[in-house]
């Protein structure tokens, strides 16, 4: 028996979970558990901050794709390819190309990302940390470090301060 490898399948956007469920049902009905080992729709957790309230949401990492750990043969290719919502395997023509295992490890372990609903020039209120209850205007946003730089008044002078996304809320002007 051949070795199982990861393959990517194109789906209609928004149908990823339905395709996953359909493939898993077919695996069960046709007893292909030894040939199609895992069906995965990679998700990532993201923290969204709106109006000072942070909430963790799950987002699809690759909209329009489902990943399968499977032994490629005529039966498994046929089953997956003819699942409703699947448009085809990733690869040239009808020849599926395996996804390297190293990439699948990267796809599975994505750090949390924070999004924030402020822009440069927006007034903000610091809600936590050393600068709690200070008000300032956003001067810069660093998405990599997930911080904003604001000016706060310190000893009668404007001083730039770097604040974590989780410690700010949009302030009324």
Question: Layout of SSEs?
Answer:
Blueprint (H helix, E strand, L loop, with lengths): L4 E7 L4 H15 L5 E5 L2 E8 L2 E8 L4 E6 L3 H8 L4 E4 L8 E2 L1 H8 L4 E4 L6 E4 L8 E8 L4 E8 L2 E8 L3 E3 L3
Parallel strand pairs: 3-8
Antiparallel strand pairs: 1-5, 1-6, 1-7, 2-5, 3-4, 9-10, 9-13, 10-11, 11-12
How would you portray this structure in words?
By secondary structure, this protein is of the alpha+beta class. It has two domains: 5-113, Alpha-Beta Plaits (2-Layer Sandwich); 118-170, SH3 type barrels, CATH 2.30.30.30. Helix content is 18%, strand content 43%. The protein has helices at 16-30, 74-81, 101-108, and strands at 5-11, 36-40, 43-50, 53-60, 65-70, 86-89, 98-99, 113-116, 123-126, 135-142, 147-154, 157-164, 168-170. The strands form three sheets. Strands 1, 2, 5, 6 and 7 form a five-stranded antiparallel sheet that branches. Strand 9 (123-126) and strand 10 form a beta hairpin. The longest helix is centred in the first third of the chain and has 15 residues, at 16-30. The chain is elongated, with a radius of gyration of 23 Å.
């Amino acid at each position: 028996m051949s070795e199982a490898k990861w393959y990517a399948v194109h789906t209609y956007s928004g149908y990823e979970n339905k395709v996953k469920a359909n493939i898993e049902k077919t695996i069960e009905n046709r007893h292909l558990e030894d040939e199609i080992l895992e069906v995965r729709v990679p998700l990532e957790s993201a923290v969204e901050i709106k109006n000072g309230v942070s909430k963790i949401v799950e987002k699809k990492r690759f909209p329009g794709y489902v990943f399968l750990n499977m032994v490629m043969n005529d039966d498994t290719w046929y089953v997956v390819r003819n699942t409703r919502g699947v448009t085809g395997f990733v690869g040239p023509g009808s020849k599926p190309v395996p996804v390297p295992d190293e990439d699948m490890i990267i796809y599975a372990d994505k750090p949390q990302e924070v999004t924030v609903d402020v822009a440069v020039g927006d007034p903000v209120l610091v809600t936590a940390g050393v600068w709690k209850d200070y008000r300032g205007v956003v001067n810069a946003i660093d998405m990599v470090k997930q911080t904003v730089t604001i000016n706060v008044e310190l000893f009668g002078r404007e001083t730039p301060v770097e604040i974590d996304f989780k410690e700010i809320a949009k302030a009324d002007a």
